[in-house]
Write a structure and sequence with these properties.
The complex is a heterodimer of chains A (277) and B (187).
Chain A (H helix, E strand, L loop, with lengths): L5 H9 L5 H14 L9 H14 L5 H9 L3 H12 L4 H20 L6 H20 L8 H6 L4 H29 L5 H22 L5 H19 L2 H7 L7 H19 L9
Helix pairs in contact in A: 1-2, 5-9, 6-7, 6-9, 7-9, 7-10, 7-11, 9-10, 9-13, 10-11, 10-13
Chain B lengths: L5 H9 L3 H22 L4 H17 L9 H20 L22 H21 L1 H11 L5 H8 L3 H26 L1
Helix pairs in contact in B: 1-2, 2-3, 3-4, 4-7, 5-8, 6-8, 7-8
The chains are: A mainly alpha (277), B mainly alpha (187).
């Protein structure tokens, strides 16, 4: 306190509920405290202190450091992260996804339904629904803290898992499309779009809804909405309107936008997912 | 970066920003060393060592700050270090002003008679402060040298606001009566 500032000093003493007589008596006393002999902080002593402190400075955390180092080889690092995530999915995921695709292929090849595209529109998003439930179940199993301290960031982990899910599903779907095309079931592009676009839509919606709902509920709701849309679109007047080739890519676009928004929101709000202390 | 608050600067320091640490040192090293110098009884070298240790603890124990303001937390560390110093060395504050400090006294150079008189007055002040006890002395310096508010002192020392006021008014009252009797002695 600048004891030369009489008003400040009086105010400070008044805060102590001092009487005017006490204030008058204490003011010179506090001024005398300011007469304490004092050393100077020299430039050299400040520099010395900083040099000592520099050795105790916290470095960038190991996690951030590792992420920074990975930036120049982002794709390789992403694939490496994805490879380490494969074990999360379990045998059940791979087999059930393959089975769904196989059943779809059999149904189409054997002409069990007249509308082949409808079968693809149902089975394609089902793969996305299963995939997102399995890939993002970690958020509900209290492993988030563990993920926050591991080398790749939570966002990288989320992207890596999407790469696995969508990569596997798209691979299966492409195999199915080629099979159908070889069997003379139609144009390969139209067949592919009929399952790929809904697949993106359901994956995007599921991930977006999972920001507010549990993963299972979000994935079921996304797939259920798509099935409801299909049911509505089978009504003859609407069929020509909703399932035109021009609108075929629209669900895919919406799905990819949903995926992007969900990933960004997930990244920004990751800390809120931690258990409250 | 100069405009950042102490707490924002500390966040930068934790993230590894050396420039932020330099600003914090610039802001607090002089007053912190002066405060410690007063607590340990005019030993500038010891005060500098304790100030250095205080900053080192800021870096190493930043996770323990919690929601407290940086300023209160800093002075808590410094005060505890001064207390530990007295406990460990069983030192008692009875040291008169060291002669090496005389050259730093802010007053204009006095004549020989005035020099002796001022030296005696200062010695009386130090003796009176020593008789107050550590708790009162710490509170007085935090208020009238470090310019901490009453609430900041309460946070720093972990005591209620009423106790801070009581220590300050009691300290000043006792200090005045001790100095009055010492003046009588000199006269």
């Amino acid at each position: 306190m600048n004891t030369n500032d009489r008003d400040d000093l009086r105010e400070a003493l008044r805060e102590l509920d001092a009487t005017p007589a006490e204030i008058a008596a204490w003011t010179p006393l506090v001024r005398r405290l300011a007469e304490w002999p004092e050393g100077h902080i020299t430039q050299a002593s400040q520099e010395y202190l900083l040099s000592v402190l520099e050795q105790a400075m916290p470095l960038h955390s190991a996690v951030r450091q590792a992420i920074r180092e990975q930036k120049p080889r982002r794709v390789t690092a992403l694939l490496a992260t994805a490879r380490t995530q494969v074990s999360l999915f379990g045998l059940g995921f791979w087999l059930v996804s393959a089975l769904v695709t196989l059943i779809g292929a059999v149904v189409v090849v054997k002409y069990l339904f007249s509308d082949q595209a409808l079968v693809l529109r149902i089975s394609g998003p089902l793969l996305a629904c299963l995939g997102t439930i399995v890939a993002f179940r970690g958020r509900g199993t209290r492993v988030l803290e563990l993920e926050l301290v591991c080398l790749p960031s939570p966002l990288q982990l989320a992207v890596a898992r999407l790469v696995i899910v969508l990569g596997y599903d798209v691979g299966l779907g492409l195999a199915l499309s080629l099979l159908l095309w070889a069997g003379g079931s139609g144009q390969v592009l139209t067949l592919t779009l009929s399952w790929l676009m809904p697949l993106f839509l359901v994956a995007g919606l599921a991930l977006l809804l999972s920001l507010w709902l549990s993963m299972q509920v979000a994935a079921s709701l996304a797939y259920g909405s798509w099935l409801a849309f299909l049911a509505i679109s089978t009504v003859p007047p609407l069929q020509t309107l909703l399932l035109t080739p021009a609108l075929l890519v629209l669900p895919g676009g919406i799905g990819l936008a949903g995926l992007s928004i969900a990933l960004l929101r997930m990244h920004a709000g990751m800390h809120r997912l931690l258990p409250q202390s | 970066m100069q405009r950042l608050s102490d707490e924002q600067l500390l966040d930068e320091v934790i993230a590894g920003e050396m420039a932020a640490l330099a600003i914090l040192v610039e802001r607090y090293q002089p007053v912190l060393t002066g405060y410690l110098d007063r607590l340990v009884g005019s030993d500038w070298a010891l005060a500098q060592d304790l100030a250095q240790e205080t900053f080192l603890r800021v870096l190493r124990q930043h996770a323990t700050r919690g929601d407290r303001s940086f300023k209160s937390w800093l002075y808590t560390i410094a005060t505890n270090l001064a207390r530990d110093h007295f406990k460990s060395s069983a030192t008692r504050l009875s040291t008169p002003l060291a002669s090496e400090h005389e050259v730093w006294i802010r007053d204009e150079v006095p004549g020989p008679e005035e020099h002796v008189l001022r030296g005696e007055q200062r010695s009386a002040l130090v003796d009176a402060l020593n008789l107050l006890g550590m708790e009162c002395r710490t509170t007085l310096w935090l208020r009238f040298y470090c310019d901490l508010s009453l609430q900041e002192i309460a946070d720093t020392l972990g005591i209620p606001l009423g106790t801070v006021k009581w220590r300050l008014s009691t300290g000043l009252r006792r200090l005045r009566s001790l100095l009055a009797s010492s003046v009588d002695t000199y006269c």
